[in-house]
Amino acid sequence: MDEKAEFSQRLRKAMENAGYPLRPIVLEREFNIRYWGRAVTVQAVRRWLRGEAIPSQEKLQVLADWLKVEPHVLRFGESAINSVREKKKRWDATVGYQEREVFEAFLSLPAPQRKILREVILTFAQVHTGAEKPLQK
Hints:
The protein is mainly α.
């Protein structure tokens, strides 16, 4: 399933959870009441509901506020958000005080020195992993 279709499913579910019927005319009316920009048409919201289009970030924010869901969850889904949270949790759990101290010192350096250290670290990592091609820069 593509991201437009997935967005459509999340929008439909959010409307149902908020107690609104899944009708384009309802979505168009409720959206335009809350949106201060140029009004959207029934055809535009029908495309959102059919999985043919995804609204702009500004419109997505209005939808999320109206339907009382997090904008990033409406746009990307709960699984994407959970994936980001898991990566952050893993990062927080594995990075200790000493590494954080080094990161802070690194970030306080001027850009030219950070570039040199970055290249040194990537070279060490390349040698350590036995990679034949250089790591991404």
